[in-house]
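Entry 12.
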Amino acid sequence: MRGRDAGRPGFTLIEMIIVFTLIGILVGLGLPQYQTAAKRAREAVLKEDLFQFRKLIDQYYLDKRMYPASLQTLVEEKYLRAIPVDPITNSATTWIEVRETPSPDELTPPETLGVVDVKSGSEMKALDKTPYNTW
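Predicted 3D structure (tokens):
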């Protein structure tokens, strides 16, 4: 005599356990790849932002024969629409402005020194183990 569930279609408990185990293994293998790809994408955006900043600072210098007083000056003078968000810190206010260095015989107050470079404000390290704030 057959049991009352013998002819019904469906899955057994062991089949469900096997399927969920395989799904767990695939997710476990894919998650680190996803995290690395996301970090690589943020690094690419940071490199492009730094490239554009440096290009605009150089263009400002060529146009005005002086460096901008701040990154906000680039926005005010329509070289930039807005200061971009640092993709590593997720903030537009963490950029580090690198000021020009006066010659030793020149008595220039620090307020008048312009921005010659910009760096990320993040202390974190990139995939190549270099700190983002050294790029």
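Annotation: Strands lie at 96-99, 115-119. The chain has one domain: 39-134.
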